[in-house]
Specification:
Blueprint lengths: L4 E12 L2 E13 L4 E5 L6 H8 L10 E4 L2 E2 L10 E4 L11 H12 L7 H11 L15 H13 L5 E5 L7 H16 L6 E6 L2 H7 L2 E5 L6 E6 L11 H18 L4
Parallel strand pairs: 3-8, 3-9, 6-7, 7-8
Antiparallel strand pairs: 1-2, 1-4, 4-5, 9-10
The structure holds adenosine-5'-triphosphate and magnesium ion.
The site of adenosine-5'-triphosphate has 12 residues, from helix 1.
Length: 261
């Protein structure tokens, strides 16, 4: 099977005060279509830069391939229009309502026909339980609601690939847990599942969400653990299987980093 995303021999380095900082050196990663792939790794290992490479925002120093659906993104930049991004903070425009922010997302990517926008906006705000609040401004709703609106802004594009960079890390634990449940529900509700690439440094979050876990070492980054997870949802933090998985991930990480928890 052709992977949805295939990174081949990626090199990335940045000039720094103490010489060149190597982030990736011949890094390879294949992401399966329809997977919920979680990239897990310590701060600074290169998770965000990897998402930026996948959607063409950042050109690596060298690469054999940045392949989406069998074609190299560098030869076909339009491939990035089947991807949408959800950032760490909601990044909503404060002078626009939540619905207008979603419309802004639709205009930005420009893949959905104009005539479908109102129905798409209504559909996905309803799906995340914000139907009644979509005409409010960001300052009139809670942080969790703002982040739900940020997910809608991406989701209305019905992207084949959803890139999510620590989208819940600024939320309190209860709200974050709700958001995870909601995201899984949204993702599962569609017949053809979207490919999600979700970045976190939270081991517990990875265990609750992933079908595929890719654990990265500190830079220069390599994959120190790659594993499929075949557990049903909803996964609760206190489920034995989830706890066991978390332990395995903590152990793998500690071993690699030479620390003990
Ligand atoms: N434009 C840049 N110029 C120089 N160095 C950069 C640039 N972008 C990223 N880096 C460096 O690359 C490394 C990886 O950055 P990246 O933001 O991908 O880390 P991360 O894994 O997402 O970390 P975090 O979990 O803290 O968000 C860091 O050391 C960072 O300082
Ligand atoms: Mg980051």
């Amino acid at each position: 099977m052709t992977p949805k995303v295939s990174l081949e021999d990626i090199d990335l380095s940045f000039p720094g005060a103490e010489g060149t900082k190597v982030i990736y050196d011949k890094f390879n990663l294949a992401i399966e279509e329809g997977s919920f792939t979680v990239l897990l790794g310590p701060s600074g290992c290169g998770k965000s830069t990897l998402l930026n490479i996948i959607n063409g925002l950042l050109e690596p120093t060298a690469a054999k391939g940045i392949v989406i659906d069998g074609e190299d993104l560098r030869n076909k930049p339009d491939l990035s229009r089947q991807m949408a991004y959800v950032f760490q903070g909601p990044r909503l425009l404060r002078w626009k309502t939540l619905a207008q922010n979603a419309e802004f997302g639709l205009r930005g990517l420009g893949v959905q026909p104009r005539a479908t926008w109102p129905a798409l906006i209504e559909k996905y705000f309803t799906a995340v339980g914000l139907r009644d609040s979509m005409h409010q401004y960001p300052h009139q709703v809670s942080g969790g609601m703002r982040q739900r609106a940020a997910i809608v802004r991406a989701w209305v594009n019905e992207p084949q690939i959803l890139l999510m960079d620590e989208p819940f890390s600024h939320l309190d634990e209860i709200t974050a847990a709700e958001m995870r449940r909601l995201l899984i529900k949204l993702w599962q509700s569609e017949e053809k599942r979207r490919t999600i690439v979700f970045v976190t440094h939270d081991i517990s979050e990875a265990a609750q969400l992933a079908t595929d876990i890719v654990m990265l070492t500190p830079a220069s980054s390599s994959i120190c653990l790659r594993r499929k997870v075949d557990l049903p949802w909803p996964r609760r933090m206190e489920d034995d299987a989830v706890i066991d998985l978390e332990k395995e991930l903590r152990h793998a990480f500690a071993e690699r980093a030479g620390i003990s928890f």
